[in-house]
Structures are given as C-alpha cells and as structure tokens.
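Running this now, will post back.
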Amino acid sequence: MEPVKNRVTDLLKIKYPILEGGMAWVGTAKLAAAVSNAGGLGTIGSGNMDAKLLKKQIDSIREMTDKPFAVNVIMLNPHIDEVIDLIIQEKVPVAILGAGNSSKYIPMLRENGITTLAVVSSENLALRLENAGAEAIIGEGMECGGHIGDVTTMVLVPKLSSILSVPVIAAGGIANGPGAVAALSLGAEGIQMGTRFIATYECEAHENYKEKIINAGIRDTIITGQKMGHPARIIKTKFGKKIAKLESSSPEEAEEALVGSLMKAFLYGDEESGSFMAGQSAGLIDEIKSVNDVIEDVMSYILKNYDLENNVDERRR
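Update: finished.
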C-alpha cells in the first residue's frame, strides 16, 4: 500500500497513522521494531525502568530498525528524570508521555528536538498539555487496558478534536479496521492499539497471556485498583477477582499483591498472581497474527472505507 499523508504521518515521519500503545514489560524493543518496520510507530514501554535498562532497549531497537520509534514515559516512574535525560541524550525520535501531568517535561524535550506527544483521558489535561507544547494528543478512552480514566473513547475523541488545534490520536477499544474507521470518523487523525499487538507473533509475552486475549469475550476484563486511586483494566482471572475483593477489606494487602504482578503475567503467564493487562478490545481478537498482518488488515479496511487524506473534519475548516 502507498504511504498515507496526513498531519500524524507527517509529524511522526511514518507510513501509516497507527501507533503501538505504550505497554510496560510488553512493549519491548522487538515488538516496537516490528511495528515501526510495518509502517506504524513502534513504542518501547519504559514503565518503571531506570536509564540503564532503557538504554539497552533503545540500543536493541536500533539494531532492528532504522525507522522512527517512540519511548513511552509514565509520570509514575520513580526514575523519570534520568529517563527523560536519556531520551534527550539518545535523541530518541518520539517521546510519548502519559499517566499524569507531563507539562514539566514537554518543553525540555521539544527544545532538544524530540517530537513529543501526550496521552490524556480528560479535556482539561489535554488543553493544559497542548498549551505546554505537546505536538499531538492521544485521547485514551476507558476501554483501554492498563491504567484507565473514566471517559469512553466515543465521547473523549470528538470532544478533544473539537477543542484542540494539534492532531488527536484515538486509543482505547480499537483492534480492527471498523474500530479504526469509527475513531477517524469521530475526528481522530490516527489510531493507537495496544491489546491487538500483544496477540502477535513478535510480542514476547508468555503464550498464556496471548491465549487469554484471544479467548476473552467483551465482558472478560475487570477494573482493579479503583479504591487505591490507580484503576487498571486486566483480564478477568481468579487473581483479578481476589484483588477486587481485597480492595474493600484490606487495601494494603491488595497493593502488596499487585507488586510485580504484570511482570509475572508477561514472563511466566502466571495465572495465580499475574495481572494480564488488556483492554475490552480483547473480545474482538480471536487469533494471533504477525504485526505486519495486523497493520495491513487495519490499513486496507481504512483505505477502502475512509478518505484519510482528504476527509477534513468540518470543525477544522
């Protein structure tokens, strides 16, 4: 397929306006390189990495692709300052900042030539981060996996596209062509997928993780951590149900049980103590594919059903 030209592909210097969501543990250099090589924007999920660990991932992805890639940085990372410094030092093409107010870091990244995007789940934070200099905003609805907000993609994306001047990229609940076209019709100029990329051959997650996604129905996720102030969507398992109960009776015990739980799911497929983070879109995924096939399938559907290059939202005319 021919490259698509719009504000998102121009900004990120990519072939298609498809981004890999930033996923701690799951978003390795190998998966990110596969997404970038297939024409999207691959993303290393830095999670709670320190600079030393992240440097290894950056070195690794540069051995596997010469295409643009991103590093996702969460504001909750205790090593965030050294991670930001490393991104600048390594001249990472794109930084994607999420899980909090990233206005402190946007100017310094941009001053050093790093294309900077921000993930939001509310209109107020979107406006604040646009004013801080974010070059595109990823509106992530509560359908997404991992840490979530409380507004759906269907409501968030059209709101953001009506109040922002920078491009909006839709995330949360998107796993196929119809979902992508729906998001674009709401005013987005690109899409981001996370859960769909877990169920790929290139993803290094344990096979149990992938199997849980392709076997999940649309109601097979559960939200944990609400009472502890950091809600996250995971696949419904005995462990997830246990955490939900512990939140009410013993929040401290629930917090302790969650420590390292994503790592246990990713590395070992541990069903007894692992958090299999995934979005509601898991219910739309029924097979493991190559990253290239995922992107080609989504893009071919978009190009048959939506004019990406010429369909300008009336609110922007």
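The mean pLDDT is 93. More later if anyone needs it.
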